[in-house]
Amino acid sequence: MDIYLEDLESGIKKARELSWRNFGRKIRFYVPSFIRYGSKLFKPSRYSFPSISITGKSCALNCKHCGGKILRTMIPARTPERLVKILHEIKSRGAVGCLISGGCLPNGSVPIGRFIGAIAEAKRLGLKVVIHTGLVNIETAENLKKAGVDAVSIDIIGSDETIKEIYNLEASVQDYERSLDALSKAGIPFTPHVLVGLHYGKLRGELNALKIISRHDPSALIIIVFFPIKGTMMEHVKPPPPREVARILVQSRLMMPKVPIVLGCARPKGKHRLRTDLLAVEAGVNGIAFPKDEAVKKAAELGLDISFSPLCCSQIYRDILRDKKGST
To answer: What are phi and psi of 30, to 5 degrees?
Structure first.
């Protein structure tokens, strides 16, 4: 079913009812420490879940929407030795986990291979570890599995034009599907991201990305939204309207009724976030990262069971599995 062929409000109702039927009337809010959260409803520790870049500020692609700016908000750790030191430091400060990411090489991959030993050290310390990769092959996927990572997050692009035009990458949609194949074969939990409005704020390959993801039984699906970043080539591009984001959320649920769906941390702020978050709650998403207070109140008005977590939203699959085990 294609939500573009029907009324959005009726689609939201269908998605909500489908979600509640499969997951119960519950929503989880995630507030890891790598973004400041100004709500009075939940105050995470400053070091609960930091983000780390294994390439520092460096990224070979210089994507038009990011330009490496997001990497500057992360803790740099450009060598395995430095990463191990940082892991011990954050653990001593009370961290419960971390996101390990980095810039891409010219082939679209993040150079995670030489950091596998350091990542395994994070697990020995008892930290939850989420790895945000670019394109990934079976060898890297299997090594991450052996290291014991808790989830691999990967952006899935459904348009060859967007890959070349925005990512500055000579790759194809098939390369992204091959990455999902590798993660699936390795047996590692993976949480694909779909960035709504990546193509200059317009929807281009999002529905195709959802179709690709739906073929690979992901642990969870995370929907994020383009927002302009100052100093990038797309700093003046407007993000897609909240109702367009809602259409993608609804379509996601109709295509993947039993996959946990989260509205992720990367999305516009201000009134756009407020409206998007409210629509997401109405559409029955299973989780929201850094929610607006009004969205939390909306969830309460709907009678939902509400919880907060300092972990990355990718961990929703574990939370849901734990709840299911507890109810049996």
So the answer is: -115, 130
